[in-house]
Amino acid sequence: MTLAVIIDVDDTLCLTEAASFELENEVLAGMGRAPMSRAVHLSTWGEPLLDAMPHRSPGLDLGRFAELFPVLHQRYLVDGRLDVIPPENLDTLDRLVADGHTVLLLTSRTEAEVQHLLAPDHVLAGRVTGAYHQGNTRFRKPDPRVFDELLADTGFRPEQCVYVGDSPGDAVAAGEAGIRFVACLQSGVRRLDEFDPRYVTAAVDTFPEIIAALQRSSGQAGNG
């Protein structure tokens, strides 16, 4: 039986790759640097931001980028250009909660990049119980130990959890941790054939389809 539904943020709960590409290039422009290509951004998407930026912009003054990024990031949030969660995805979270699931976030974002999602007045309040990120986990995806703190804090066993994500690294982390994985392909950033099929329990084209995928998964588990 699934008790916890763990959800990735970027290009799973909300579609962020395209907006992040624009945001990061705007920061680079403010530093007098050439823009990165979309292909480079896509190839490093899913990595922690400050790990990815030296590949996206070789020779970058990473410290200066880290100083400038939060200011522009906040402006994008205020302007509604980033981290916009569609109403249908919020409805899906409500359905999960109503069905008795604990909803948690697990992301490669830094603590600063996820704080606004946990604010008391955010639309996720009352829907999401907690979030795990670079600030409170010792490991990073695709390392399966990224779930260690979440499992220890909540007391859930891996077989009681499902992780919903958009990248092959998400699948590897979940699968190696003994957690079922649902691939959400809505962003179009990844194709299903890029995932190791050993780790994929189900695949969905849109986030709301995870409800039916979970029901099918629970039925299969009950028949096993």
TrEMBL record:
GO BP term, pick one: DNA repair
GO MF terms held by the record: phosphoglycolate phosphatase activity
InterPro entries linked to this entry: HAD-like_hydrolase_sf, HAD-like_sf, HAD_2, HAD_sf, PGP-like_dom2
PANTHER family from the UniProt entry: PHOSPHOGLYCOLATE PHOSPHATASE
The protein's name: Phosphoglycolate phosphatase
Species this protein is from: Paractinoplanes tereljensis
